[in-house]
């Protein structure tokens, strides 16, 4: 029978140094908890600490939309972990508008900073050491909504589309050094951020809700569904897998 102990042994995370952004709730908190259960040392970050940050994880308060915030996270990783073997860029989120033309310029910048450039900047600080060591793994958390380009979320999906494109390019660049880079694209997942965003969207939408159908597998995602995919992608079981974007969405969309 699989137990947390023998499963984590098989996954081989004991002693691995892991940085997960956005681990104070939702998907990030599930990723942090799964890594801790699997024996890893984990640092996580958010703008403020909540009781949902799993016990046992080191925490640094930072806003990853800014260069200063990203630098503070990288420094904290050096201090708390002595380096990073596995980097999960998970912090992100969306704020819907009624139409794409209602999205103000500063919101476009904000979404690019949060959902795209935060990852680019953190990777730039942490992957050189992985390259030198010739080992490491990076995951970028995107969204399965990229191909839909819904006007209410165009700033968000455009930023996540850039993230997917960049993730693939970084994977190609780092592959010769034994560093793997992949993306995970969640479908509709029950998290505090996801619920708040869908509530905002529903209050903006005219006519029937655009968000009332179940994915083919009959339920919305749970944070652990996404965490399972992240842990797989950075594990040795995925050692011949790089540059990919794994949709975890209950079969919601034909592409991912
Ligand atoms: N839930 C879904 O249905 C869904 C679907 C597709 C993709 N995703 C993606 O999955 C990831 C996690 O989403 P979630 O649903 O778990 O969201 P969530 O419940 O809102 O959690 C987001 C986490 O990111 C942190 N964060 C947000 N802005 C930040 C900032 N500027 N600096 C540092 N940390 C920040 C939050 O903490 P603070 O707010 O305290 O900073 C929190 O820890 C995101 O990238 C999201 O785009 C989610």
UniProtKB/TrEMBL annotation:
Keywords from the UniProt entry: Oxidoreductase
Residue segments, region Disordered: 185-221
Xref: Gene3D superfamilies: NAD(P)-binding Rossmann-like Domain
Residue span(s) of domain Ketoreductase: 16-229
GO MF entries: oxidoreductase activity
Keyword Cell division appears in the UniProt entry: no
Entry keyword annotation includes Oxidoreductase: yes
InterPro entries membership: KR_dom, NAD(P)-bd_dom_sf, SDR_fam
Superkingdom per UniProt: Bacteria
Listed CDD domains: SDR_c (cd05233)
PANTHER family cross-referenced by the UniProt entry: OXIDOREDUCTASE, SHORT-CHAIN DEHYDROGENASE/REDUCTASE FAMILY (AFU_ORTHOLOGUE AFUA_5G02870), SHORT-CHAIN DEHYDROGENASE_REDUCTASE FAMILY PROTEIN
Family: Belongs to the short-chain dehydrogenases/reductases (SDR) family.
Protein name: Short-chain alcohol dehydrogenase like protein
């Amino acid at each position: 029978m699989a137990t947390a102990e023998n499963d984590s042994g098989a996954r081989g995370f004991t002693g691995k140094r892991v940085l997960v952004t956005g681990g104070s709730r939702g998907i990030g908190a599930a990723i942090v908890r799964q890594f801790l259960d699997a024996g890893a040392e984990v640092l996580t970050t958010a703008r403020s600490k909540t009781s949902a940050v799993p016990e046992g994880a080191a925490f640094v308060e930072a806003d990853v939309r800014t260069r200063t915030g990203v630098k503070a996270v990288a420094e904290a990783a050096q201090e708390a972990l002595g380096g990073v073997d596995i980097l999960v860029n998970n912090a992100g989120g969306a704020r819907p508008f009624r139409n794409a033309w209602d999205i103000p310029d500063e919101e476009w910048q904000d979404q690019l900073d949060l959902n795209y450039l935060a990852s680019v900047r953190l990777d730039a600080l942490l992957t050189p050491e992985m390259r030198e060591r010739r080992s490491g793994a990076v995951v970028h958390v995107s969204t399965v909504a990229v191909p839909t380009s819904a006007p209410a979320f165009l700033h968000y999906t455009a930023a996540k589309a850039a993230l997917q494109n960049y993730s693939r390019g970084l994977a190609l660049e780092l592959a010769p050094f034994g560093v793997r880079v992949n993306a995970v694209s969640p479908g509709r997942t029950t998290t505090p951020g996801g619920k708040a965003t869908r509530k905002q969207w529903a209050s903006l939408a005219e006519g029937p809700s655009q968000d009332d159908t179940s994915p083919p597998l009959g339920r919305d995602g749970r944070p652990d569904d996404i965490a399972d995919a992240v842990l797989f992608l950075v594990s040795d079981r995925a050692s011949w897998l790089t540059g990919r974007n794994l949709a975890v969405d209950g079969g919601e969309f034909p592409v991912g």
